[in-house]
Amino acid sequence: METCFKTSETERTRWFVKDRFGMFIHWGLYAIPGRGEWVKSIERLTNANYQLYFEEFNPGNFDPKTWARLAKLAGMKYAVLTAKHHDGFCLFDSKLTDYKATNTPARRDLVREFTEAFRAEGLKIGLYYSLLDWHHPHYPAYGDPYHPLRNQQPAPGEKRDFNEYLEYLHGQVAELLTQYGKIDIMWFDFSYGELTGETWKATELVTMSRSFQPHLIIDNRLGASGEQQNITTTNRPIFAGDFACPEQMIPPEGLADAQGKPYPWEACITMNDHWGYCAADHEYKSPGQIIRALVECVSKGGNLLVNVGPDSQGEIPRESMRILTEIGEWMRRNAAGIYSCGSSRLPKPEWGRYTQKGNLLYAHIYERGIGPIMLRGLNGKIKKARLLADGSEIKLERPWNAKEYQEDAFLNFPASRLPDETDTVVELELA
Ligand code: GLC
After folding, report:
1. Tens of pLDDT along 155-164?
2. How many angstroms is it from 266 CA to the middle of ligand 1?
3. Is the CB of 37 under 6 A from ligand 1?
């Protein structure tokens, strides 16, 4: 039983560990206040305060085909959309609530349009579903650390029945997994305190999910504390997930399970400092920073999920579009050093990073340095070296003064500056 589960786990994530690069999309009513997706909690807005946004939500420029084309152009292979975020607003036409996009002036099932458009571009489909719900009448509110009503007292006679909420949560996940065709990833977010693991009826939830879509991969946020999340423990519960999802950071090394086998992971990062649209936040990372973050992840056997936060009209911010387009320019010529690649056994070189796929080793050079570029330990092991961007030869040549470095190979770089200051990739075919 145990081995059988392990095997299928590996099979499920096979595409995921090859595709490496995805788009996260945080979108909902919070795009209207434009102060990030936590606005309802941070500003402690009641349902009545927040209702304004529901009544006016009408993203006239929402065209998921343009989103999908942009993701594809950037070299992304999959996308994860917030079907429901913590505010409880559903982008999909759920039968279980009135609090949904089809009841706003938009009158559209945004999840349906998203899934159709992204699939048409050949991208894999992920749905983010918030375990927290700051709208549902039965989600714990008073005394909860995050709920907008956390500092208030229940109204006289008010009762919150968590089981009612669980039924709703399970029901909505069933809807998402039966009404929208093939879903590749379910991205649950998040567990805290007592609200973790079986409190969500997580085994039942995952079992049900896989009964609809056996190939489905899920993140690890259904069980956030202690043993349940620890990937190095054996016999993890099935809701421990198929991959780890470190947020706003890249782990110092790759992750491994109890057997020392590489464990799939995906770092998710924002482009500026917010997930949901934030009108005043222009603290964008540069395209080069994001490209290097992607290489960093791949060099450690991980994926990168980069976020966009479309505005209230349904448009991805101009800065994000520009950054993604530039990343796409680099990916168009260098993606061979990303897709299907993972970590190499070689230590991290001083001039950059290595990624590897079979006998192809990719040297991602960030620093030109002085003289030849040293490939430690690779003397006699390289058949040929080519600049990935244009296929041109890079000569492997032992300089006259390298007698002490018998183990090492040398790239005689034809210029004193790197052709691509962000990341010049040299493909090394190993013998
Ligand atoms: C956190 C935040 C959330 C965001 C997510 C992305 O859990 O609560 O707003 O969606 O991280 O990883």
Report:
1. 999 999 999 9
2. 14
3. yes
